[in-house]
Design brief:
Layout: H1 2-12, H2 18-29, H3 35-48, H4 52-64, H5 73-77, H6 79-82, E1 94-98, H7 110-113, E2 117-119, E3 127-131, H8 132-143, H9 153-160, H10 166-175, H11 179-195, H12 202-240
Antiparallel strand pairs: 1-3, 2-3
Helix pairs in contact: 1-2, 1-3, 2-3, 3-4, 3-8, 4-8, 8-10, 10-11, 10-12, 11-12
Amino acid sequence: YSVVHQCVSELQSESRDRDTLMRQLSLLHELQWCKCAALCMTAMAHLKFGESEEADRLAMELQRHQVESGLKPNDIRKESYITKLPEDSDWAWRFCLPCDSPPRFPFLPEFTQTLFTARLSQPLSSHLYVNFRCLSWSLQAELLRNRAPAIAFDHWIEQLLGDPDLEELLTLAHYSDCREHVELSLQQMEMIEKERRVAMETQDEEKIGWVRQKLERLDAAAGVLKVESQSGGRKMKAESD
């Protein structure tokens, strides 16, 4: 946990000390249970230092990597439960880190930056929430945009069936233009809001509002296409008559 915190802090700093950061990240790579976090932050480090080809290579490795889903906080606290997991299980990919100001990652794609959620409205419990699984999805989508295979949205949805958070649902809605995907994201986000699973802040309401607007745009576009299709059909019928 402390090494993850140090790496996230170092990635935000103006320091150009690449070697120190890479040494810290190498410690995480030795721990299989936080492999996704290590891969994501190493890709971020390469982007910070202008090494785009190395970042792309790690994004491809993230495509092949699978994290352990469905674990509850109480499960993780039980050493007996953790020891029953396969040795290669990657279960540490959601972190709440100390934070007192908005995060800064200007070297990341604009949307990817929004996935680092600083919750600062309650000073005594302010923190930076990082979900490395959805960060991994975003890095893959951004860095491998023009490469095959295409984004595996069905695979994302399978992993979201357990306990999705706002960031994961926003990521799905952002990258997919499939109406069903966006509608699913909105429904799940509204459920999180209704059930008060998190202390909703203005930024969370804005995320839900953005997804709602995208769904409206998709519906409007589908309506236009339907009208054009019907108009074209009537025109063809008239010409045949």
